[in-house]
Specification:
GTP binding, COBW domain-containing protein 7 isoform X3, CobW/HypB/UreG_nucleotide-bd
């Protein structure tokens, strides 16, 4: 069943259709620090359709677009009227072809460093780290975030990763590798695109979630690349999030 779930998450682009009245739901506060469902769905989506844009002022559409982008910095946003959408934008996308390593690299270069949501605890963060990571060390880094949940921010709040996407360089592998994660599921996939010999290999990661701390996550990844990651995991293992 787990393999089926991984296939469903990573081989099928995740679509989300919204109407312009969704704004109030995106800002709705839930008890006990829970993330509301509308926000979670926006964070998970690869393509977000905003419908009925002809029924509200442009200023409202702009505000909604900004709110969505603050939650999901990498998803494609399409605006529609009367549910009409160019099918070429949503069908036969090849969104998870191995060649998407090229398009993903370009997309990640244009994601702003940190985008706070209105909640202020949900953000999209991105960072770049040069170098090569051992696959085993990379798995430890991801699993500590998604599975073990041992990482906290400077305010001692648990970091909750909803979505993870990136392009990484794995030691002894000439190909670029795509990493994708949704909640506790993640996948590493080699692309046919090789790193150029005359350029520095650079890892680019985008994370969407709650209470994320860019500085801590970047230092953790640097430790992963430089193989000093054990020092960091030891520091956090006594503070497992529940």
């Amino acid at each position: 069943m787990k393999l089926c779930l991984q296939w469903c998450y990573f081989r099928v682009p995740l679509f989300l259709s919204l109407t312009t009245s969704i704004t109030e739901h995106l800002t709705e506060e839930k008890p006990d620090g829970l993330i509301n469902e509308a926000t979670r769905q926006v964070a998970l989506a690869d393509i977000i359709l905003i419908n009925k844009t002809d029924l509200v002022p442009e200023e409202d559409v702009k505000k909604l677009r900004t709110t969505i982008r603050s939650i999901n910095g990498v998803g494609q946003i399409l605006e529609t009227q009367r549910s009409r959408v160019d099918l070429s934008n949503v069908l036969d996308l090849h969104a998870f072809d191995s060649l998407s390593g090229i398009s993903l690299q370009k997309k990640l270069q244009h994601v702003p460093g940190t985008q706070p949501h209105l909640d202020q605890s949900i953000v999209t963060i991105t960072f770049e780290v040069p170098g090569n990571a051992k696959e085993e060390q990379l798995n430890v880094f991801i699993q500590n975030l998604l599975w073990e949940k041992t990482v906290r921010n400077k305010d001692n709040h648990c970091m909750e990763v909803i979505r993870l996407k990136g392009l990484v360089s794995i030691k002894d592998k000439p190909q670029q590798v795509i990493v994708q994660g949704v909640h506790e599921l993640y996948d590493l996939e080699e692309t046919p695109v090789s790193w150029k010999d005359d350029t520095e290999r650079t890892n680019r990661l985008v994370l969407i979630g709650r209470n994320l701390d860019k500085d801590i996550l970047k230092q953790l990844f640097i430790a992963t690349v430089t193989e000093t990651e054990k020092q960091w995991t030891t520091h956090f293992k006594d503070q497992v999030c529940t």
